[in-house]
Amino acid sequence: MLIIFIGPPGSGKGTQASLLCEHLSITHLSTGDMFRTAIQQETELGRHAQDFINQGELVPDQLVVDMVAEAISRPPQADGCLLDGFPRSLPQAESLDEILSADGNGIDAVLELDVDEDTLVARLLDRQRPDDTLETIKNRLEVYSQQTSPLLDYYRQRGQLTSIDGKGTVQDVHERILADLPSGKT
Ligand code: AMP
Question: How many angstroms does the Cα of residue 58 sit away from the middle of ligand 1?
Fold first, then answer.
């Protein structure tokens, strides 16, 4: 099973992705977490990614695509995973399609967490991540609207997109996600 989670920074994507993975017993693959680990471990990938992340820019597509292609081919991910934060641009979505079709797999569901901008900024300013300064937050929201939001139409046109209202408590949103998951996926 492969589920894709799309949502602007601060939408609660990471938290909701973890809860859903627990519920479905599938692996949670967060590209943001993978980069943060690489930065902490001071790997070559971490060194490449660090400046982009600190400025709220996207890490170049090829770096991300290679990292994800390697990760999703490994067990237990190969049996089912949720991609949190990938794809984030149209070229990444097209690369993912190629990777999956080469494996004979498909995407089971694409979930969008929809939250208004004032709520996003308030939530982000409440977090303690190094890339959560006001300036970086504004850039990440801009990058989301320019580069990531076109993916919504890409998947909507294929009938794969489910939009979920991301307002309310963590539990409210989790229950909404379970209720709205395409049938047969719970
Ligand atoms: P996140 O934890 O999902 O908010 O990601 C944190 C940061 O990691 C983003 O602001 C980007 O700089 C980088 N990043 C994560 N996923 C991707 C991706 N799919 N493409 C490019 N950059 C990414």
Answer: 6
Closest by CA to 162, choosing from 186, 148, 180, is 180
Confirm or reject: Cβ of 83 under 6 Å from ligand 1. Answer: no
- Look-up of token digits 């949190």: 84
pLDDT category, 83, cuts 50, 70, 90?
A: very high
3-class SS of residue 183:
coil
Sequence-distant (6+) residues with CB within 8 A of 121 are 10, 134, 137, 141
Which DSSP string do the residues of 70-115 spell out, in sequence order?
HHHTSTTGGG-EEEES---SHHHHHHHHHHHHHHT----EEEEEE-
Interhelix angle 170-180/13-24, rounded to 10 degrees, is: 50
Give the model confidence (pLDDT) of 101-152 as tens digits: 877 678 999 999 999 998 998 888 888 788 888 899 999 999 999 999 999 9
For the chain, the distance separating the N- and C-terminal CA atoms, rounded to the nearest angstrom, is: 11
Q: Which of 10-14, 49-53, 71-75, 77-81 has the lowest mean pLDDT?
A: 77-81
Would the CB of 64 count as within 6 Å of ligand 1?
yes
pTM of the model: 0.93
- Secondary structure letter of residue 155 according to DSSP: H
Q: Which helix (H) or strand (E) covers residue 175, if one does?
A: helix 170-180
